[in-house]
């Protein structure tokens, strides 16, 4: 019933618009590169210094020197450019990215996001997440709706250290597409076969539910 990682990426890809410069975070967001809708052109940016990421490579296309921020091998699209991470972050901090897609541990009704550390656990570093959420107005978070223990990740108030405050407006989970406004979650779509009741049960923060919630189609 819940969306797969690939379906999550497909749903996020529908938010892409022709001419966008898009940063894809580590994890599920990187899969969006495989689902860019036909008929539009976007430039996918990786914070390690690649503008113009293509789909993941086939076995005969693999180049160990061509990687994204998550150290996965990628391809370069026509017109791609390669530069230093300093220039990449200048692009991010300068507000030149039209859309940022990243994962999260928690999101709350105020649009706060916690995505970089869990106290007491191994921390790899914050990466570019803080720069990305500060430098972009259009951000989509993609994540599972609840933890593996069944605890909601859509909260009244984030409990983990924040990556950014008041910056998230759209969330695509494995159960639903939700928008954030007026300190509430607004349910817009549900995953195929997922009931509204299940989404309500697994959403801690205040959730506004319309009379009809359409199912996503793939």
TrEMBL record:
SUPFAM superfamilies: NagB/RpiA/CoA transferase-like
PROSITE patterns: COA_TRANSF_2
Coiled coil feature spans: none
Positions of transmembrane segments: none
Matching Pfam families: CoA_trans
Source organism superkingdom: Bacteria
Keywords: Transferase
Protein's UniProt keywords contain Transferase: yes
Record GO terms (molecular function): CoA-transferase activity
Keyword Transferase among record annotations: yes
PANTHER family per record: KETOACID-COENZYME A TRANSFERASE, SUCCINYL-COA:3-KETOACID COENZYME A TRANSFERASE SUBUNIT B-RELATED
Annotated family: Belongs to the 3-oxoacid CoA-transferase subunit B family.
Protein name: Succinyl-CoA--3-ketoacid-CoA transferase
Biological source species: Zhongshania aliphaticivorans
